[in-house]
Amino acid sequence: MTTSEKKQLMATACKVRMGAIKGVHAAKAGHPGGSLSAADLFTYLYFKELRIDPKNPKWEDRDRFVLSKGHTAPGLYAALALRGYFPEEDLLTLRQIGSHLQGHPNMNLTPGVDMSTGSLGQGVSTAAGMALAAKYQGKDCRVYTLLGDGEIQEGEVWEAFMFAHHYNLDNLCVIIDNNGLQIDGRVEDVMSPYPIPEKLRAFGFQVFEINGHDFEQMESAFNQARETKGVPSAIVMKTVKGKGVSYMENQAGWHGKAPNDEEFEIAMNELSAQLAEVEGM
Predict the structure, then answer these.
(1) CATH number of 3-279
(2) What is residue 12's predicted lDDT score, i.e. its pLDDT?
């Protein structure tokens, strides 16, 4: 990755975070914490990794992305808007009646959304099904899915992992946002999924462990995942919930709460300062 590419991704990630905060603030509801922890991942996927065409969202040979932790839709929507799937001003209509940007992704309403999600645990199952269908159809497209670390407490997730290994879905890449927090507190206190990498390896995955805010580590992991043959891949990202907004970072209370006007201004000022710093590098 060149210095210029890294700088561009960092700047875009700041804008994704700003877009997510704008949407949640306008809606007075939503899930900022997990959107911010996954903002770098959304950025890398939509601006470097995925084979997609915003002008042709239903292109049959595109790569697919399933947001299994569907409540972090504000972050996904911000990335899609910046990538050109719909106008950025649409982010301010989040959760409004008649808007195509609802609280959870809807594949029938929103350009660029490949699967309707929201009920935790189900997204990875559909992603595995998509990957198997692509193999049956002889297509070389890849399928990516993002899960929360709290989400993997769901039993259906592990059934999907067994399925992925049984059918040798090497075109499937599972990504886990390990920010350590869920709506009720620390993941390890609610129902510990640890050790996550070891469990995934036991289920037959090729596993990569990275800092989910480091684009160079992200690039290395995704490159290796694409080269893995015969087994599915998993990328376990260590992240910070609420990343980029000081008062949200590592605070479970910001899992599903909108900032008030004063908090919004603080968040936007901090993110604007980060963007200016990146652009001045």
Answers:
(1) 3.40.50.970
(2) 98
